[in-house]
Amino acid sequence: MAARVRAEAQRAWAGYAKYAWGHDELQPVAHAAHDWYGAPLLITPVDALDTLVMLGLTAEADAARRLIDDRLSFDQDVTVKNFEITIRVLGGLLSGYQLTGDRKLLALADDLGARLLPVFDSPTGMPYMYVNLRTGRVSGAQTNPAEIGTLLLEFGALSKLTRKPVYFEKARRAVVQLFDRRSPIGLVGEQIDVESGRWIDPTSHVGGAIDSYYEYLLKASILFGDDQLAQMWRTSIAAVNRYLADEVSGGLWYGEADMTTGRRTASHFGALHAFLPGVFVLGGDLDRARRLEASCFRMWQLRGLEPEEIDYRTMAIVSAGYPLRPEIIESAWYLRRATGDPAYLAMGQAFLDGLVAYARTDAGFTVVTSVATMARGDLMPSYFLAETLKYLYLMFAPDDAVDLDRVVFTTEAHPLRPTW
């Protein structure tokens, strides 16, 4: 099974190399390239580099690294989304540097980090959403907990590796500012204004726009040995378990509630929520992890690929797309590592079989626009190589492929080690 996944990764990379070399992402149906901002930032090569290394695809990894070394420049007059560029590009450069020792990757990471720093120059210290890489002009004051809180692993590791404290200090201050604005019952909402510090949308959940804020409280406490962040995690997850957990017909789900009152507002759960079982494993709560992953797998089994979102009380599909997301696979891998239960290997095979059956093309894999009809779009997101295939491979690889006592994976599956 590991060899099957490795072969699919090699084939997907070959599709990128043939049809989108030097660009951000592959359109595997049209055999074309897609760039995020006009001028490419090599998002797929940077995001995928550590996967190529970890899967032993040495020639492919060397080619990707040479492309990055020779052609990647951040001196571009483009306005980028800080969150996405941090998790995909900054994180990819840092893990690539740690795995290869190529100091050009660290220099690029330092240059990028410096260009992203202006996002933190808000009255609260919480980051704006967008920044121009050349001018430093920022925009997007209305943002969310995920985009505020999911910077700390990357900026913190950059600080440690370059010995420049400013990166860690600014990203950590942003997290503390957000945590301090939680409601009296301990929840955060979906949207906040970083200039006023006021909540705009009080909806609380563990899905997109909030999800990785919780993930990084725990993971950053582990990577940096930060006791305050660990306490913030314990406080936050206690509120999540009290007000968002929902028992339905013997199954465990996490729905939506008002952040101030805790009143249930919706019973929606989806692909992005499926990160949580893996984080429960890291936090030592195997019972919740097992039960919630079982619910996630029910969602996958509805159609053979998971829909983006369902109503778990009716099991009706609310949003039918499947953009090749990795979270359910990631959580199954953490559970397989923690328990040794072969049921998670069987899940892994179901995940791979579904991907091959419904998303595979002659040049890689593409997003599915509806799991009801299996209609396809035309994009292979960089995270498919960075995360989805990496976690699938690790599911079947020997445990010594990753030392989880020494490695913390970012939300984009970039492995960071405390080499400092």
Overall description:
The structure is a single chain. The chain is an alpha+beta fold. Helix content is 49%, strand content 15%. The strands form 9 sheets. Strands 3-4-5 form a 3-stranded antiparallel β-sheet. Strands 6-7-8 form a 3-stranded antiparallel β-sheet. α2 (43-54) packs antiparallel against α3 and α11 (276-282) runs parallel beside α13. The protein is globular, with a radius of gyration of 20 Å. It starts with a helix and ends with a strand.
Integer-rounded radius of gyration: 20 Å
Structural class of the helix and strand makeup? alpha+beta
Number of helices: 15
Head-to-tail CA distance between termini:
35 Å
Task: Please outline what is shown here.
The protein has 420 residues and is an alpha+beta fold. The protein has helices at 2-19, 43-54, 58-71, 82-100, 103-116, 145-149, 152-162, 166-179, 211-224, 227-243, 276-282, 286-301, 327-339, 343-358, 382-396, and strands spanning 25-27, 32-34, 79-81, 130-132, 138-139, 142-143, 191-193, 199-201, 203-204, 245-248, 251-254, 256-258, 264-266, 268-270, 309-311, 316-319, 360-361, 364-365, 368-370, 375-376, 408-409, 415-416.
